Amino acid sequence: MLDVSGQNEPLIDRLTEKAAEVIRSGRYILGPEVTAFEQEVAEYIGVEHAIGVSSGTDALMVALMALGIGKGDEVITTPFTFFATGGCIARVGATPVFVDIRPDTFNIDVEQTAAAVTERTRAILPVHLYGQACDMEGLVEMARKHDLPIIEDAAQAIGTQSPLGPVGSLGAYGCFSFFPSKNLGGFGDAGLVTTQDSGLAEKARVMRAHGSKPKYYHAVVGGNFRIDALQAALLRVKLPELRGWTVGRQQNAARYDAAFSDSGLDESLLRTPRKRFDGHIYNQYVIRSSRRDELLAHLQEQKIATTIYYPVPLHRQECFAPLGYNEGSLPVSEHASREVLALPIFAGLGEARQSRIIDTVIAFLER
Questions:
Q1: What is the pTM of this model?
Q2: In this structure, are residues 93 and 122 in contact, taking their beta carbons and an 8 Å threshold?
Q3: Which residues contact 61 (CB under 8 A, 6 or more apart)?
Q4: Nearest to 131 by CA among 285, 348, 23
Q5: Are β-strands 74-77 and 121-125 bridged in parallel, bridged antiparallel, or unpaired?
Q6: Helix/strand/coil percent split, the chain, to 5
Q7: Which domains, and CATH codes, for the chain?
Q8: Mapping DSSP to helix (H, G, I), strand (E, B) and coil, where does residue 178 land?
Q9: pLDDT tens column, 106-159
């Protein structure tokens, strides 16, 4: 799905030099490399404040804890996402309230979100899935009406643009991941919290360091959520390449779109992603097919990588069974989980390999 080694190889000398520089410095926790990375990535995303943390999951934890969300509270979110989105809500003691997605973009439905607000609702947590922005125009308007903060799960969406501006800048907090498979992937776990508000930025910095300010003095309980200096330093080497990698993904997506559109296949057999606007960064290129499982098996036989994001929506996970969601509760998410399939989209894929993927998919579905 992603040739990580191939992506890193042209940068290997600079990466090795930077790693050695950090090792020799003796500064491994926070310090100048982290500060420099935070400034550079904030400029890239288009936000005032960026706080490096230990993972995308921990970015969500920091945001929820900084907003004081806990036992007895409800947070509205999508069930069609990676587990961390709902898991972090539960970990702080709050209740995830799942609402269905739009069938065209896989992102949270604004009208259903509005209908789910109760007196216990404390935040809205939308996910910019696969690298495409949610309907932030509708979500922001609705959140303001109910005086609710938005926590943007932008783990898959670094550099994604919406009509309102860059994702990660539109809510109280934005949460990003640098897991190796992301568009900007690190060398292990790392993440980022973003905000436009200096007060919220300070709360996040305190939370990532056990709630201490100054050191050894704790007015609140936080966690050990700091990004490693080595991760920050290596991400600084890769960050200048990100814009070009994103363009490469977008070009690959356009080739997929054109080829699959020209195939003449019925939409029940092959439906391509619906792009709301040009800001989509394609962390994943996800098609839908009523013959998904057969297609998946065929691609694996042909040694073509493919993955299902996600086979079981969160409201149907065993750990969330006590919440009372039954089969059919959120039908759009459930239907999507039976049809979605991600194809390789990384910038270094190359036209020859992509053409083989396209031809294999079309030939199988035409049979």
A1: 0.97
A2: no
A3: 88, 91, 92, 223, 225
A4: 285
A5: parallel
A6: 45, 15, 40
A7: 4-99+106-241 (3.40.640.10), 242-366 (3.90.1150.10)
A8: coil
A9: 999 999 999 999 999 999 999 999 999 999 999 999 999 999 999 999 999 999
